[in-house]
Amino acid sequence: MSYARQMLNSYPLTFNVEASVLAATIDALKDCAQACTADAADDLSEQNVTALVKCIRLCLDCADVCAATLAVTSRQTEHDANVTKPLLEVCATTCKSCGDECERHAQMHEHCRVCAEACRRCERACRELVAAMK
Amino acid sequence: MSYARQMLNSYPLTFNVEASVLAATIDALKDCAQACTADAADDLSEQNVTALVKCIRLCLDCADVCAATLAVTSRQTEHDANVTKPLLEVCATTCKSCGDECERHAQMHEHCRVCAEACRRCERACRELVAAMK
Amino acid sequence: MSYARQMLNSYPLTFNVEASVLAATIDALKDCAQACTADAADDLSEQNVTALVKCIRLCLDCADVCAATLAVTSRQTEHDANVTKPLLEVCATTCKSCGDECERHAQMHEHCRVCAEACRRCERACRELVAAMK
Amino acid sequence: MSYARQMLNSYPLTFNVEASVLAATIDALKDCAQACTADAADDLSEQNVTALVKCIRLCLDCADVCAATLAVTSRQTEHDANVTKPLLEVCATTCKSCGDECERHAQMHEHCRVCAEACRRCERACRELVAAMK
Description:
Oligomer: homotetramer
Distance between the termini of chain A: 26 Å
Shape of chain A: elongated
Mean pLDDT of chain A: 96
Number of strands of chain A: 0
Low-confidence stretches of chain A: none
């Protein structure tokens, strides 16, 4: 069982979303933030770095937005849906932009392929959590 | 001249938004993220901490969302308006929620009054930057 | 295989540390940062919140230090050991402080027990990576 | 008066360091984190980006370490010197590495010159705060 799930299971109050959906999103956000941080740096080691500038920039943005969304969704106490829902939507949009760009380089660079996969999974997870919050 | 403005002035390419509006937003985001981090911790030193739980939680969220928005707006290269604009809007919403809650404690706690002011200023700055991007 | 390990396996150049040790540290840092963020918020839902103020504060610090260490260790390109090693040492120290405090509340609060475990594992992983870098 | 100083002035308890020294460090950390985030992205807009890879990487690290140090120094409640002091020392070291590298590009790129200045100021401020904590 992931730490995210263990933490949710030990939360002293109740929350309105199914724990399995929330835990899956938290885990996807953790993985995506880290993969994007790594991919931006990996791109800098490639010979065709000028062709990867957009990819680097979007990976940096995606890492930052996922990190903020991860923190906000990790807090259950006094949860404010007016903040969480639009933030999850922006995060899904950012993962989409970043995943699209990474995918363009996936055949040439395996690290971009892995990162694109992490972005796709995170985009889906954010959208599923928004749907579950309705 | 703030470092944010100096950095914008030395950006090698052009950008579509007026530098003064962008710099004002970046400076407001820096101040708001730091004020919220400080206010959440200050609340923990108050005797009536149980009455401040919602304030602490919203300050932590606001600090995280402002930090991500600060990073994204600080990057000009390969700027993606599909990410930046909705992120600025979520940031304004978060500053509004946090500022409203801080204001409720402003008469009793000076640190909440200062933090509420930082949130109001940041909310306005984010909205003005969105307007300038149209 | 974790995303951290997949990203390391696809890094285009070589690095001086064994990938399995590095991946284990990255995974421990991800888990610890998230557990600490969650635990700080969980503490705010407890009735004896005043007894948990030190725990909250250390969890917030530990989350921030782990997040920075996670980002730095996720970047292989142009790695600077003068930054990484002392940062890993500070991170281990912070995990120790936070884990000790969480453990004091572990019998009363299950979320503090889980968080203490994440801190212990992360402390060990950071020290093992420092040892492997020598 | 900066928001950092206003927040310190409204802290409900006392702290052991002079507020002016602490506020100066907090302001320097805010500026350095933002300048490094901006400089890493500015470098990506330069034609000789391959010559700037080390600069980009160190700027990303410096932004992350400054952000964590900023958060930790912004919290006064239950301050733990065992965490804060070594973290400030690592932050000074990171600012030194990053400032040295930025300075190498300062004549060619004005944004690197401004960033180097922010790093130097932050390095000094961190060392002064450590000295004041003794």
